[in-house]
């Protein structure tokens, strides 16, 4: 199913937690709301599910206005950060919960619970257990299975992996993507983790202060951020301070602009622009090094191939090309 939010606004009392939200989410798309804590992501999700009343705009699910419907009539699946499982029920009963409400036959429920348990790779042994007997990763699988059981055509996932350790997050992230492809579902995903957003999404909406800052593919958001906020929020980036810029031959550069460059666009080898500096910190990442270089008026982070091995306090020259420099005037792309 496709979802359209048009001029959506949500207030808590006098506080505008979301405003002017316009999103077009296509059927079978993996769409992510990415933004810092408190930016309004959950507020938008709760408006879609019906747990928040909207103060303005429309929510169209396959062209039908749903904002006046109660949550249970919207047929939208939802998984929360804290799982929100029923702790005293068995895994089976948790997954079967929505199906029982739909008055499905016991036999049909059993078949469906087994099917979704298989999808999320929960064994039949696990189905008999109590929720507290499962690991965090298994509990999250139960939460996903429960939301999938009624076969929703739209699934909302609000920070579903944030309670898990790093390795499990990556594993479950791959599984989510596989499930989405297999089940041909529209997924709206909320995260403040940029690597999750970049790896999973077809499109990302960057949310900041209750507004949409930019919508685009992961590549577009990373490579051509429209605002200074997006440039700083997605990926690592170096600000070329005015002190640095004043050292450069910058006749084509504007005085009131802010200039940025990504660490991977700096080189120790060659480039149009050169800055001398000394090695301040060095981190080894297996495939490469990350160095912080002290330069006149500031520091720059650089990602370098392991062939470029320097020691602390070594003198080095950083090179980069003008084409890789991102320019912002008044916060927006120059
Ligand atoms: N029930 C509420 N009443 C009043 N203010 C609220 C309520 N819920 C959220 N807020 C405020 O609205 C803003 C947006 O909150 P929201 O939970 O949507 O952010 P978020 O981007 O989902 O954050 P997080 O990543 O931390 O979950 C915040 O400033 C928050 O304090």
Automatic annotation (TrEMBL):
Domain of life per record: Bacteria
Gene Ontology CC terms, in alphabetical order: ATP-binding cassette (ABC) transporter complex
InterPro entries tied to this protein: AAA+_ATPase (IPR003593), ABC_SmlMolc_Importer (IPR050093), ABC_transporter-like_ATP-bd (IPR003439), ABC_transporter-like_CS (IPR017871), Mo/tungstate-bd_C_term_dom (IPR008995), P-loop_NTPase (IPR027417), Transp-assoc_OB_typ2 (IPR013611)
Key words of the record: ATP-binding, Hydrolase, Nucleotide-binding, Translocase, Transport
MF annotations from Gene Ontology: ABC-type transporter activity; ATP binding; ATP hydrolysis activity
EC number(s) recorded for this UniProt protein: 3.6.3.30
Enzyme class: hydrolase
Keyword Translocase: yes
Domain ABC transporter span(s) in chain numbering: 3-234
Keyword Protein biosynthesis listed: no
PANTHER family in alphabetical order: SPERMIDINE/PUTRESCINE IMPORT ATP-BINDING PROTEIN POTA (PTHR42781), SPERMIDINE_PUTRESCINE IMPORT ATP-BINDING PROTEIN POTA (PTHR42781:SF4)
Protein name: ABC transporter, ATP-binding protein
Native source species: Leuconostoc citreum (strain KM20)
């Amino acid at each position: 199913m496709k979802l359209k939010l048009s001029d959506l606004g949500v207030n808590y009392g006098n506080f505008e937690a979301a405003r002017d939200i316009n999103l077009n989410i296509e059927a079978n798309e993996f769409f992510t709301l990415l933004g810092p804590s408190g930016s309004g992501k959950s507020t938008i999700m709760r408006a879609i599910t019906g747990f928040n009343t909207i103060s303005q705009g429309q929510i169209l699910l396959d062209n039908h206005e749903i904002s006046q419907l109660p949550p249970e009539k919207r047929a939208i699946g939802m998984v929360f950060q804290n799982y929100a499982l029923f702790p005293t029920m068995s895994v089976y009963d948790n997954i079967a919960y929505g199906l029982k409400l739909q008055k499905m036959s016991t036999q049909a429920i059993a078949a469906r619970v087994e099917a979704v348990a298989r999808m999320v790779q929960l064994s039949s042994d696990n189905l008999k257990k109590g929720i507290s007997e499962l690991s965090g990763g298994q509990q999250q699988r139960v939460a996903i299975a429960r939301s999938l059981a009624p076969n929703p055509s739209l699934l909302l996932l609000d920070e579903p992996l944030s309670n898990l350790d790093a390795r499990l997050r990556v594993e479950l992230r791959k599984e989510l993507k596989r499930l989405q492809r297999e089940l041909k579902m529209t997924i709206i995903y909320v995260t403040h983790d940029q690597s999750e957003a970049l790896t999973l999404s077809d499109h990302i909406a960057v949310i900041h202060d209750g507004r949409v800052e930019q919508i685009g593919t992961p590549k577009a958001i990373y490579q051509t951020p429209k605002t200074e906020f997006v440039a700083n929020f997605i990926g690592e980036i170096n600000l070329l301070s005015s002190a640095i810029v004043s050292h450069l031959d910058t006749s084509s550069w504007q005085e009131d602009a802010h200039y940025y460059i990504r660490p991977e666009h700096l080189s120790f080898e060659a480039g149009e622009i050169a800055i001398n500096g000394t090695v301040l910190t060095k981190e080894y990442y297996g495939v490469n090094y990350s160095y912080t270089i002290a330069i006149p008026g500031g520091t720059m982070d650089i990602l370098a191939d392991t062939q470029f091995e320097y020691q602390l306090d070594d003198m080095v020259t950083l090179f980069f090309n003008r084409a890789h420099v991102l320019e912002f005037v008044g916060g927006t792309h120059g």
